[in-house]
Amino acid sequence: MGEYKTYRSDHRLAERAAPVPGRHADRAILVTGGASGIGHAVAGRLVAEGARVMIADLATDQLDEIAGKLGAAAIACDVSDPDATGPAMAKVAERLGPLDGLVNCAAVVRHCDPLEISRADWEMQYRVNVFGAYDMAVAAAKAMIAAEKPGAIVTLASEAGKKGHLDSLAYSSSKAAVISWTRILAARLAPYDINVNCVCPGGVATPMLRQVAADYGKVTGEDPESVFAQMTMPQLGRHIAPAEVAAVISFLLGDDAILVRGQAINADAGDTPY
Questions:
Q1: What is the set of active-site residues?
Q2: Residue ranges making up the domain that contains 185
Q3: Among 78, 67, 87, 173, which residue's Cα sits nearest to residue 130?
Q4: Considering the domain boundaries, does residue 214 fall inside one?
Q5: Cβ-based neighbour number of residue 238 at 10 Å
Q6: Which of 29, 95, 101, 164 has its CA 20 to 30 A from that of 223?
Q7: What is the Cα–Cα distance from 110 to 169, expressed in whole angstroms?
Q8: Does residue 120 share a domain with residue 209?
């Protein structure tokens, strides 16, 4: 049955995501996956809000240049490697001092028929999206506890972790796991005044979404640009901008979010109903 709409649906809402000067003044914050996409937008916003930021990413060839343009420090780090977490945190402490916040943006996605997905694809997505993010969160929390400092941890989950997507079973499952451990870790770290939340974006205009569009294009036979153009959010009338997700993450890192704890905050322009 078709849906008859009595309202206009050709609108396009303007972006409104201005930084809040001084919100994170002199705070030391690590952003994984900070070389591109949402992580890059988060790092830029936090610097604009007064934070001392270090980005961690695999993009070693351009990482220092990217960080320099942001006004941040940089460290090459593969979050899927459990042996990389300790050295990374040691370098963060050396460059920034005691840590105040962590933003887990590093992630990978692979698309495949649920009946054809390989064990290797499952493991690769879990190593980065679940284990890597959790290892970084625990390492950051232990550093904050040792320094007797309050802090905040925000991890990028996804609306896929709530709704699930047919051709991204492992990715959807990995983000559901992030949502689950976020709630448990928040309760564990509450006595230390370390707040833990995650954010669930929808169709954000990032290189990752373009890769998703290309993957779907291979399945449907459509041009990737055509697929990408269709991946907009109805209530916005456009894609979500990385800076808009960064604004939500910035809030969750701050003192004003003290009552928002262990939550999976939808940042998908009204697309997810719970």
A1: 171
A2: 28-201+241-267
A3: 173
A4: yes
A5: 17
A6: 164
A7: 9
A8: no
- Domain presence at residue 78: yes
The pTM assigned to this predicted structure is 0.92
Does residue 2 belong to any structural domain of this protein? no
Instruction: Kindly report the number of other CB atoms within 10 A of residue 208's CB atom.
Output: 16
Mean pLDDT for 132-154 is 97
Q: Report the alpha-carbon distance of residue 26 to residue 95 in Å, rounded.
A: 13
Cα separation, 270 vs 273, in Å, equals 7
pLDDT in tens, 81-128: 999 999 999 999 999 999 999 999 999 998 888 999 999 999 999 999
Q: Is the domain of 168 the same as that of 228?
A: no
Number of domains forming the structure of the chain: 2
Nearest alpha carbon to residue 36 among 103, 106, 116, 135: 106
